[in-house]
Automatic annotation (TrEMBL):
This is Phosphopantetheine adenylyltransferase. Its EC number is 2.7.7.3. Reversibly transfers an adenylyl group from ATP to 4'-phosphopantetheine, yielding dephospho-CoA (dPCoA) and pyrophosphate. Homohexamer. Pfam families: CTP_transf_like. Pathway: Cofactor biosynthesis; coenzyme A biosynthesis; CoA from (R)-pantothenate: step 4/5. The gene is coaD. ATP binds at S9, Y10, H17, G88, L89, R90, E98, Y122, G123, F124, L125, S126, S127, S128. The keyword Nucleotidyltransferase applies. One of its GO terms (molecular function) is pantetheine-phosphate adenylyltransferase activity. HAMAP family: PPAT_bact (MF_00151).
Length: 157
């Protein structure tokens, strides 16, 4: 079975994230959407909320499951027999960072990284930007899945 992981903080999940998850699901038998647990960062949504949201927005993808991890991603991959990491690229600066991470992950564990170009419609999109715009009352409805929009609206109302 070919397994891949789509790692991220997903705080919150955006349409760009969902696009990469859906495209990865077409390429692999099983995809794990893994939410990073970073005890040093306070997110807008709790880890449990992010997992719940991701399960809802990926419910139509039968080969996708949602989990969380803390520590090195390559250790998670080894523990779960995952051979590939997929990441989306929005810009050249994303590429520079992700290439270094891919090379390090391969050196540490042999896990391959697939860097996928983003859908141009989401090239500007980031979780941080979505949170900032939503916090100031901006309309992010077309940038995030419906459940994320509802949760953001509730958080900032």
């Amino acid at each position: 079975m070919r397994r891949a992981v789509c790692p991220g903080s997903y705080d919150p999940a955006t349409n760009g994230h969902l696009d990469i998850i859906e495209r990865t699901a077409k390429l692999f038998d099983e995809v794990v959407v893994a939410v990073l647990v970073n005890p040093n960062k306070k997110g807008l949504f709790s880890i449990e909320e992010r997992i719940e949201i991701l399960r809802e927005i990926t419910s139509g993808l039968p080969n996708v499951r949602v989990d969380s991890w803390q520590g090195l991603l390559v250790d998670y991959c080894r523990q779960h027999d995952i051979a590939a990491i997929t990441k989306g690229l929005r810009s050249v600066s994303d590429f520079d960072y992700e290439l270094q991470m891919a090379q390090m992950n391969r050196e540490l564990s042999g896990v391959e990284t697939l860097l996928m170009s983003n859908n141009p419609a989401y090239g500007f999109l980031s979780s941080s930007l979505v949170k900032e715009v939503a916090a100031y009352g901006g309309n992010v409805k077309d940038l995030v899945p419906g459940v994320v929009f509802e949760r953001l609206t509730a958080k900032f109302s």
